[in-house]
Amino acid sequence: MYRSRDRIFSGNPNAVLVAEATDLPPGRALDVGCGEGADALWLARRGWQVTAADVSEIALRRAAAAATGVEGRVAWVRADLTTAPPPAGAFDLVSVHYFPLRRRPDHGALRGLLDAVAPGGTLLFATHALSDLVPRHEEGFDPADYYQPDDIARLLDPAWNVLINEARPRAAPRPAGTHHTHDAVLRALRLP
């Protein structure tokens, strides 16, 4: 995907991240599927120490090239967090935005991300609302194969407090060539 164009995304942080993380005190953040780095840079410029992970070396190079004024605040990491979980309890914020997290019977990849949230930390998960997604069988895409906030909320144990679990109109223009008009958002606090 990143080889197809010089820039894939706008360079602006996701509107859900801005709306939901502005009031959080800076700490350690994990940006899952960081892409070209806009979310990681937004967090770092607000005082967060960020681990920005992606499977694409091209995306990580672009992100690092855009990382001005945040020296030492972002670690760009090539990793597949669906197969190699991040360290348990290591992050005050785990931010998962539009990351294609496929459902698995054991929920292994999801549990790895949940476990990475430190006590007192926040999980922020945002994706396209299911109502905006259409199966594309010829491409092998079925929206039901991927987690939605409701799925995750149902899996959280009593050590979590769900603060937000909703679909809301997108605050930013929809991505070019798509029909995405709503975001599905989960914000959950891991109790201390």
From TrEMBL:
<keyword id="KW-0949">S-adenosyl-L-methionine</keyword>
<dbReference type="InterPro" id="IPR029063">
    <property type="entry name" value="SAM-dependent_MTases_sf"/>
</dbReference>
<feature type="domain" description="Methyltransferase">
    <location>
        <begin position="30"/>
        <end position="121"/>
    </location>
</feature>
<dbReference type="GO" id="GO:0008168">
    <property type="term" value="F:methyltransferase activity"/>
</dbReference>
<keyword id="KW-0808">Transferase</keyword>
<dbReference type="Pfam" id="PF13649">
    <property type="entry name" value="Methyltransf_25"/>
</dbReference>
<dbReference type="InterPro" id="IPR041698">
    <property type="entry name" value="Methyltransf_25"/>
</dbReference>
<dbReference type="GO" id="GO:0032259">
    <property type="term" value="P:methylation"/>
</dbReference>
<protein>
    <submittedName>
        <fullName>Class I SAM-dependent methyltransferase</fullName>
    </submittedName>
</protein>
<keyword id="KW-0489">Methyltransferase</keyword>
